[in-house]
């Protein structure tokens, strides 16, 4: 964007734009006097936003065809969106992680709006040998147009030795962008191994889910593991087995990891073996709902239930709530009296209060007394500006089940 032509001027309607004027980076089409067509404002073009009286608000990028017409990247009028600007943003994000994620070698370096970089996610994985690897997810046309800037800054100013582009999903479809999943630079080894809370964890950044690992859960695992430290544990929707592994490392003697992905379960096997805990692991490739229904006589000291997002958009809320309720009820029935459960939802549209209602209805349906012991959320490498409540998505509760 450093060499881009003059920015397209966008102006707020009188009385409109309360959100963006209050610090939120999004500008909706109905807040603008005019939304330029694609021949004037190409998807991702640099924009300058002015208020209804013509005063500078911020600069960023636009899209002629999406509900969110512009996203603000800087509020400084004289600030070009160049390599120095991006380096400063990345450095600031890193400094935050050095405190909130001290000692971690895998963390989310850039959490889009949470770090003032809407449209960009960067997950970072450092190896014991000193290599720095990243998986980058670009969700908007604006950052798609800045891919070479992102790569140059990461390689030249942060010595990132390996990069993978992992840009796919619904956000890109809305922007009219095809998926882009490819090795960017550096040695293209199929699996990467990082230290996760003292245990080596191997994953596949290219063909695995999301950016390869779910980096939003590490603090919840750290806090809840002592309550999962005995007897039999079921890790439902286990992916590569990190919850189950945390339980086994804390002392659980049998762990069943259930997931529908064979590849993920194979990696779970590898990860337990790397900690010398392969004898405690059973993997089951199955639909979790079917598996729970097929095990009427089995009970566990702890059950972890971390499903994919059931609510992907507003029209899915009612069905999603029903699905969470039914699943959590099934999971709670599998916990022995006095045992524990971890119940999670990564649906951003399911707010914490409604999540609490779902847990309480599931408890009633299961006929169990459920008591909340700890409430968790996304790890601090996923920061949430108070203006941007959309950045907050994860609920993760540790409960006891009577
Ligand atoms: C949110 S991720 C779980 C992340 C994991 N618990 C962790 O902490 O890394 C969801 C997982 O559920 C699996 N999955 C999705 N739907 C499933 C289903 N109906 N039955 C079994 N597994 C499913 C996916 O393969 C994926 O590994």
Quick tags:
402 residues, alpha/beta, Archaeosine Trna-guanine Transglycosylase, Chain: A, domain 4, Transcription Regulator spoIIAA, Rossmann fold, 3 domains, seven-stranded mixed β-sheet, five-stranded mixed β-sheet, 11 helices, 27% helix, globular, binds S-adenosylmethionine
What does it look like?
The protein is an alpha/beta fold and 402 residues long. It has three domains: 8-74, PUA domain (Archaeosine Trna-guanine Transglycosylase, Chain: A, domain 4); 83-192, RNA methyltransferase domain (HRMD) like (Transcription Regulator spoIIAA, 2-Layer Sandwich), CATH 3.30.750.80; 216-401, Vaccinia Virus protein VP39 (Rossmann fold). The protein has helices spanning 18-21, 83-100, 141-144, 147-158, 170-174, 218-224, 242-250, 262-274, 288-293, 317-333, 352-366; strands at 8-11, 26-28, 46-50, 56-62, 68-74, 106-111, 120-126, 132-138, 162-167, 180-185, 192-196, 199-203, 232-236, 254-259, 281-285, 300-305, 335-345, 370-377, 395-401. It has a seven-stranded mixed β-sheet, with helices on both faces. Strand 4 and strand 5 form a beta hairpin. Helix 10 packs across helix 11. It is globular. The termini are far apart. Bound molecules: S-adenosylmethionine. Residues 209, 214, 217, 237-239, 242-243, 259-261, 264, 287-288, 306, 308, 346 line the site of S-adenosylmethionine.
SSE blueprint:
Layout lengths: L7 E4 L6 H4 L4 E3 L17 E5 L5 E7 L5 E7 L8 H18 L5 E6 L8 E7 L5 E7 L2 H4 L2 H12 L3 E6 L2 H5 L5 E6 L6 E5 L2 E5 L14 H7 L7 E5 L5 H9 L3 E6 L2 H13 L6 E5 L2 H6 L6 E6 L11 H17 L1 E11 L6 H15 L3 E8 L17 E7 L1
Parallel strand pairs: 1-3, 8-9, 13-14, 13-16, 14-15, 16-17
Antiparallel strand pairs: 2-5, 3-4, 4-5, 6-7, 7-8, 9-10, 11-12, 17-19, 18-19
Helix pairs in contact: 10-11
The structure holds S-adenosylmethionine.
S-adenosylmethionine binds next to helix 7.
